[in-house]
Amino acid sequence: NADMAMYSVKESGRSNHRFYDSEMDKKSYGKFELERDLRKALEREQLLLVYQPQVHVESGAIVGVEALVRWKHHERGMISPADFIPIAEETRLIIPIGEWILYTACRQNKAWQEAGLSPVHVSVNLSIHQFQSPGIVENVAHILRETGLAPQWLELEITESIAMHDVEQVIRTLQGLSDLGVKISIDDFGTGYSSLSYLKNFPIERLKVDKSFLDNMIESPKERAIVGSIIVMSHSLGLKVTAEGVEKVEQVQLLQELSCDDAQGYYFSRPLLPDDCAKRLAENAIYAGGR
Ligand code: C2E
Ligand code: MG
Ligand code: MG
Ligand code: MG
Predict the structure, then answer these.
(1) ipTM of this predicted structure
(2) What pLDDT score does 40 carry?
(3) Helices marked H in 42-93
(4) This protein's superkingdom (predicted)?
(5) Across-strand partners of 41?
């Protein structure tokens, strides 16, 4: 994938200077193009959200969906967020794009609820500049009012690395969001350097254990022990745990044994287009009834 290659060149180009000029030119040309097109992506209506179900491990009921952004480029096809979110961040385009994502996810969830589907929360990823922008709390409040979505049905995901930035500022913002009634979860937990003792004072509801731990959990008793103790400690601090990137039935069995609350991954479902997600939510009533 050309975009992937471009992104990794950019990343490695930063840490070492072994690249020849021609390669640098090629790379900056690609990035310039991508940036120029990203500026127009919103007005051209090329962005869309897909939704990945989050499942209650014990009952199998869908309890939430994570909104994941996609860019349908007119020439390059689908571009992954891993390739364009960093550029959106650098150029501050993340502010309008992030607002569009929040608005679209809330409006979609409200529409599903109004259609009578079993209510679930929608999780929206916040990137660092979006989280740090001064108007973020007011912005979220405004979007909830506009869309009519009740705050308890919105969950915001911030990564561990965002949480590690400027503790007092982070806690102030999280408190503001939490006061609105919105839920907060820590995404990709375990990949950074934060710890549960660091996070214990944060007004958060949930940890999402990173896929890397889940990948190794079948073969490695040590990784399993780590996931197990994250779950035990989280529960004793009143936090819920979601396992990310679950692909195999063996992982689900282990998560059941470890009393993990929720799980998300290809085993349950890939991210879905809105209509397909609505179908899954319609089937969900059967499970939810049995809870
Ligand atoms: P994330 O928030 O940790 O999202 C999970 C990623 O793992 C998604 O990739 C999802 O499709 C993928 N995934 C889920 N289950 C499985 C699985 O079982 N196996 C594998 N191999 N992958 C799985 P995606 O959609 O490409 O997103 C990548 C990252 O881009 C996200 O990581 C998030 O950091 C960022 N991102 C995505 N959408 C948004 C958005 O709307 N706003 C912001 N700020 N960032 C976003
Ligand atoms: Mg996420
Ligand atoms: Mg994640
Ligand atoms: Mg992740």
Answers:
(1) 0.97
(2) 94
(3) 81-90
(4) Bacteria
(5) none
